[in-house]
Write a structure and sequence with these properties.
alpha/beta; Rossmann fold; binds magnesium ion; 6-stranded mixed sheet; single chain; 2 domains; 4-stranded antiparallel sheet; binds adenosine-5'-triphosphate
């Protein structure tokens, strides 16, 4: 079964059809890329999947469950985590604390447990801290665990967001331009890390990127958007050679 299915999803803002009848499906364990020019509707599509905006029509299924009109919190609990095009970190908190926040999704201790620091609470916090440090190690930030988030470079902040999203133990991880502002070396390292995460376990990644070279090298499957519509979808080679794609996007400036 597909992990994510979109059926004819549309969303307009005033006269702008930001997302226009998009259907697709993502398979478990896939690294699925979404590309398209500025304003193509990529972020709006992510917002529709994660419940930040509601579609005018169409449905979104996660593992066969209809999540179309669920809240962002409910959708997060069902296993989708995401990052944003604009970095959203808690600047004055430490690197470790930022990731701990991501790990609290789905933990079910009560206010009573927290206030009285019951054993179950302390045990889970200790367990969470260990898991968080492992994630910081995975993204290469363990040495920076006690620094505040604002002290990190742009590329490091992007990796911190990735760690925070992973702390929620998502089944589907959605990244909106995770390599934006990274230099080539950082972007290649990120690509390797994403490939490793997908190969390691049960993670599926949906990725928006303007770095077309990175997407073509990294992804199993790619959807191309333009003016809210899905223009093409397929393997990297198919997309690379699609004449409509070349004309609308890849051919730009080449
Ligand atoms: N909340 C909103 N209110 C009004 N218009 C919006 C809103 N969100 C998106 N749009 C419009 O919808 C269209 C698609 O925008 P979107 O941000 O989804 O594109 P994008 O493909 O992510 O672009 P970029 O590559 O620049 O990030 C644009 O015309 C944008 O101005
Ligand atoms: Mg966008």
């Amino acid at each position: 079964m597909s992990i994510l299915t979109l059926k004819n999803v549309s969303k307009s803002f005033g006269g702008v059809r930001a997302v226009n009848g998009v259907s697709t499906s993502v398979q478990p364990g896939e690294l699925f890329g979404v590309i398209g020019p500025n304003g193509a509707g990529k972020t709006s599509l992510f917002n529709l999947i994660t419940g930040l905006i509601q579609p005018d029509e169409g449905i979104v299924l996660l593992n066969g469950i209809d999540i179309t009109h669920k809240s962002p919190e409910q959708i997060a609990c069902l296993g989708i985590a995401r990052t944003y095009q604009t970095i959203r970190l808690f600047d004055t908190m430490t690197v470790r604390e930022n990731v701990m926040v991501g790990g609290h999704i789905g933990l079910d201790y009560s206010l009573f447990d927290v206030l009285f620091r019951r054993r179950s609470f302390i045990f889970r916090e200790t367990e969470l801290k260990e898991r968080v440090d492992k994630l910081l190690d995975t993204v290469g930030l363990l040495k920076r665990a006690n620094d505040t988030a604002s002290e990190l470079s742009y590329g490091e902040q992007r990796r911190l967001e990735l760690a925070r999203a992973l702390a929620a133990k998502p089944k589907l991880l959605m990244l909106d331009e995770p390599a934006a502002g990274m230099n080539n070396r950082e972007a290649s390292e990120l690509a390797l890390l994403l490939r490793r995460l997908v190969s390691d376990g049960e993670l599926t990644v949906l990725l928006i990127e303007h770095n077309v070279g990175m997407i073509l090298n990294l992804c199993d499957k790619i959807a191309v958007m333009n003016f809210g519509k899905k223009l093409a979808e397929g393997l990297p080679n198919e997309v690379r050679n699609d004449s409509a794609v070349v004309e609308a996007y890849l051919g730009k400036g080449s």
